[in-house]
Specification:
Blueprint (H helix, E strand, L loop, with lengths): L1 E2 L17 H11 L5 H10 L2 H4 L4 H4 L17 E6 L2 E11 L6 H17 L4 E10 L9 E11 L14 E6 L14 H16 L5 E4 L4 H13 L2 E5 L12 H6 L5 E6 L4 H10 L4 E8 L4 E4 L11
Parallel strand pairs: 1-11, 8-11
Antiparallel strand pairs: 2-3, 3-5, 4-5, 6-9, 6-10, 7-9, 8-10
Helix pairs in contact: 6-9
């Protein structure tokens, strides 16, 4: 991971980074050098409890497993047969809100953060449950828990796909037309438009991968797409709509918003995707490209720009 504006000088480790000494050592070993400021921030988010479930993964493994559909290879969504050729799709996600959550907007953002996982299966959401915890144990980190449930015909489940080198990384969502501004949480009409557009894109076989903007913002979705395929991704900061010219790279990459998703697609399918998004009034912007080097590179000035600092 690298970015061409970040100073090479790195401050000493600090507990606020959320990275332990062992984690910092692992990062240095993987990079072959000391990470710069942006890279440390990206690793901190990618390895946080929200993204990687560092402490809860072992506990989740002790829960009983429901009978899932064979071949339904969507790691973040469970699909259970319910009879007559139908399956129920369920996806759940926690999200912390600091310092003070808004009951309406933050629950809506929590829903959007997991909605893409369900949509990627081809299922249409039919129910949403959201809970906001602000009791004593969550005083410093209010918790938003969301569950999205959908239905899909078993023969219409979209197989898990993976991006390939050369695929485009597309940011979908926000106000209508190319260059959408991303929007904000709690807009039911905008969420519905994005759901309809996404289902048509996925159902038409146009997407090679899909992730909602959740914990970790755009970077979290990009990292998920990259890691799931074992590929790299090159992101152009200048192509991200709504970015201010003086904004730090972290602010742009970590910005979260409901009603936005990141998808990857073959270049030849971009026109069809843009046509579908435009019909539903959903923004559509190419912000990156899949590479074969296994790295996430952050650049300015276009996808072919050179000179990122290592």
């Amino acid at each position: 991971m690298n970015e061409d504006r970040t100073p090479a000088v790195t401050p000493p480790p600090h507990p606020a980074d959320g990275l332990g000494d062992g984690e910092l050592a692992a990062i240095e070993e993987a990079l072959g050098r000391t990470p710069n400021g942006l890279e440390r921030a990206l690793f901190r988010v990618a390895w946080s409890e929200q993204r990687s479930r560092k402490s809860s993964r072992a506990l989740l493994g002790t829960l009983p497993a429901a009978r899932a559909l064979a071949g339904a290879r969507h790691g973040n969504t469970g699909m259970i047969p319910i009879g007559d050729g139908w399956a129920a799709a369920l996806t759940f996600g926690p999200d912390t809100r600091r310092p003070a959550p808004e009951p309406g907007g933050d629950v809506a953002n929590g829903v959007s953060a997991v909605l893409g996982d369900l949509l990627a299966t081809g299922a249409r959401p039919i129910a949403v449950l959201g809970g906001l915890r602000r009791a004593a144990s969550h005083a410093e980190d209010p918790l938003v828990s969301t569950l999205v449930v959908g239905f899909v015909r078993e023969d219409a489940i979209v197989p898990a796909a993976a991006p390939e080198p050369g695929d485009l990384v597309i940011l979908c969502g926000g106000n209508g037309g190319t260059g959408g501004n991303g929007g904000s949480g709690g807009n039911g009409a905008r969420d519905a438009e994005l759901v309809d557009a996404t289902l048509e894109v996925v159902g038409s076989g146009l997407a090679a991968g899909l992730a909602a903007i959740g914990a970790g913002g755009i970077f979290g979705s990009v990292a998920e797409a990259s890691g799931g395929a074992g590929a790299g991704i090159r992101v152009n900061l200048d192509a991200i709509p709504g970015r201010q010219s003086d904004a730090a790279a972290e602010a742009t990459l970590f910005a979260g918003s409901s009603a936005r998703m990141v998808l990857t697609a073959r270049p030849g399918r971009l026109r069809e995707i843009m046509t579908i998004c435009a019909r539903f009034g959903v923004g559509c912007d190419v912000i990156g490209r899949v590479t074969d080097d296994g790295d996430i590179a952050v650049v300015e000035g276009g996808l072919d720009a050179t000179g990122e600092r290592s």
